[in-house]
Structures are given as C-alpha cells and as structure tokens.
C-alpha cells in the first residue's frame, strides 16, 4: 500500500495520519508524541478542535524535525464564523502561532457553509454558494509561503464543481470528508479520482459510537482472522487501498501503534468488503443543523 501520495505541488502527503478531533487537552500531546515515535509523520488538526497549542508543543518536544512532519490545519476562519476573505490570513496566523510553526503543509476550508459575521448562526448564502473569493485568499497564502498546499473539507461534487469552474491558480489538492464503512461515498471517490483530487477519510472507523459496530462487521472480522490482523487494521488498510488518506483518531497508545500498520488486502477480500460497504443505505455520522443542507 502507498505510504504517501504525491499532490499536484509535488509534495508527498503520508497516507496514514493521526487525527486529533475530540482528542482532549491533556491527552492530545501524549498521543502526538506516541504517534511520532510509532512512525507517523502526519498530524491532522484544526483551529476549531482547540488543541493546536498542545499539538505544536508535542511536535517540538518529539525530537522529529518539523520538516519531516506533515501538518494539516483547517481554517478557524473558513469554519463558519470566519469565512470571509479578509479573515483568512489572520485566522491562519493564529493557527501558525498556536502550533508554533511558520508554515502549514496543508490548509483546508473546514466547511462549505459560511455564517454572516457577528449574526449568530445566520448563513451567508452568497459566500456559501461562491467560495471563490475566499479561495483566492488561500491561493495568496500559498504565494506568501505560509501554506504549501490548499484544499477543502466536507465538499460534495456539486460544490467542488462550483469552485473549480473558476480559473483557479491552485486547484484544491484534497477534499477531506467522512468516509467509513457506513458512508463509503463511492460516487465522490470515483469523481475525485477522475479529477485528480485526493480524498482524506475522517471518522474512518465510524466515529465514536459506531466504531464498535464497524469492528464487528462480519466481512471485517473474517478478513482480520484470515490475515491475522485486527479488525481496525482491516478497515484502515481498506481505506488506503481505496486510494485515500486515512485519519484515524485515537488517544490510546496501543491503538495509535495498531492503526499505523496497514497491509494490502488480497483483492478478493478487498472486493468483499467494498461490496458490503456500498450495498447498504449510507449513514452519515455528522449532520450539522445549520439551516442549509450542506450535503446538497
Ligand atoms: P480512543 O481515542 O479512546 O482510543 P474515528 O477515527 O472513526 O473517528 O474513531 C475514533 C474512535 O475510535 C475513538 O473513540 C477511538 O478511541 C476509537 N479507536 C481508535 N482506534 C481504535 C482501534 N484500533 N480499536 C478500537 N477503537 C479505536
């Protein structure tokens, strides 16, 4: 299985990352250190997770050089409240300061939905339907050297087509979305491959309350037995074999180590799991109620 993918910039993004959403303060630093020791070189965070200071400190204390670690963040700004073009650079600067670094490897528009400034959760429909002005600011951040690659998160095909219909200086290098056994999004994955867009799988194990169920899927269990690996390793390997980056979250040392060891699944086993995943009705674990159907 690929240990990295090459982005249009030529940069190589490691295929397995430690995800730090819901990794609580007081735990996330240790998780990052354990991961780096286990061989991870990719940490996926965001301004909104509220743990960038601890993540940055752990990276500096890990002894691994900054240049050897891929750091992704998602805009505090481009997360709902700070979506406006003029908010891009200040919000990015805040993430850089919190992380204690002078560049990010990847910076994402966290959600396609923008709220009107200082008006609670009122959707700004113009900015939501036309993210191009915000995207141009992100392109400027690349030119300034503050970020090396830019992308989006939680965009569906319609929103991707809408954004890329503009003549972009830099196309989105990745789209980070929920991908799991319960929500495998085969159409989006196909579209992404045809359009040279890398997908990144968040909540790859099913996120929180669905993880147990994922690890008990009969196909997952039988492949694990067959290969002598754990059910989590089967699912994480399946994601990489589908051609996506995978971002399992854990703060448990043994699981962090376990999740890093991906192996190729025999074609027959892969096909069996893929077929099972795409044959049931998809279920999203994330369904924010912001008064706009973000998935359409
Ligand atoms: P914890 O962080 O307490 O170890 P996802 O990445 O799909 O959002 O799933 C994250 C959840 O799955 C967390 O609750 C995490 O628990 C749990 N988890 C992560 N890795 C494993 C694993 N290898 N086996 C079982 N549960 C896991």
Ligands in the model, by name, code or SMILES, are: adenosine-2'-5'-diphosphate
Task: Count all strands and give the number.
Answer: 10
Low-confidence stretches: none
Cα separation of the termini: 33 Å
The H/E string reads: EEEHEHEHEHHEHEHEHHHEHH
Structural class: alpha/beta
Question: What is the overall pLDDT average?
Answer: 93
Sketch the major β-sheet. 8 strands, parallel
Strand order of the largest sheet: 3-4-5-6-7-8-9-10
Helix residue percentage: 25-40%
Number of discrete helical segments: 12
> Per DSSP, what share of the residues sits in E-state strands of 2 or more residues?
5-15%
Protein name: NADP-dependent oxidoreductase domain-containing protein
Keywords: Membrane, Oxidoreductase, Transmembrane, Transmembrane helix
GO molecular function, one term: oxidoreductase activity, acting on the CH-OH group of donors, NAD or NADP as acceptor
Domain NADP-dependent oxidoreductase: 22-276
Folded structure, characterized:
With 296 residues, the chain is α/β, with parallel strands linked by helices. It has twelve helices and ten strands. An eight-stranded parallel sheet has the order 3-4-5-6-7-8-9-10. A two-stranded antiparallel sheet has the order 1-2. The site of adenosine-2'-5'-diphosphate has 17 residues, from α11. Adenosine-2'-5'-diphosphate (A2P) binds next to α11.
């Amino acid at each position: 299985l690929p240990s990295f993918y090459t982005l249009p910039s030529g940069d190589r993004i490691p295929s397995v990352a430690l995800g730090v959403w819901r990794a609580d303060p007081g735990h996330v630093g240790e998780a990052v250190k354990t991961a780096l020791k286990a061989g991870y070189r990719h940490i996926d965070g965001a301004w909104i997770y509220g743990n960038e200071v601890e993540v940055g400190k752990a990276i500096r204390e890990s002894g691994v050089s900054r240049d050897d670690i891929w750091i992704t963040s998602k805009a505090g700004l481009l997360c709902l409240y700070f979506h406006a073009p003029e908010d891009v650079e200040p919000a990015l600067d805040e993430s850089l300061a919190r992380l204690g670094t002078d560049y990010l490897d990847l910076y994402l528009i966290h959600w396609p939905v923008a709220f009107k400034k200082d008006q609670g959760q009122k959707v700004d429909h113009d900015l939501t339907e036309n993210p191009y002005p915000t995207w141009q600011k992100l392109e400027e951040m690349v030119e300034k050297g503050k970020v090396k690659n830019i992308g989006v998160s939680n965009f569906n095909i319609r929103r991707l087509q809408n954004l890329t219909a503009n003549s972009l200086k830099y196309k989105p290098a990745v789209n980070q979305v929920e991908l799991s056994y319960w929500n495998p999004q085969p159409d989006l994955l196909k579209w992404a491959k045809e359009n040279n867009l890398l997908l990144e799988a968040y909540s790859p194990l099913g996120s929180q309350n669905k993880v147990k169920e994922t690890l008990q899927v009969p196909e997952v269990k039988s492949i694990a037995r067959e290969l002598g690996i754990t059910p989590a390793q089967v699912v994480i390997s399946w994601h990489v074999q589908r051609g996506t980056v995978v971002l399992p979250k854990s703060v448990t040392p043994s699981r962090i180590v376990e999740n890093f060891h991906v192996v190729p699944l025999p074609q027959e086993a892969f096909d069996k799991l893929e077929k099972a995943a795409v044959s049931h009705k998809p279920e999203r674990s994330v369904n924010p109620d912001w008064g706009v159907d973000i998935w359409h």
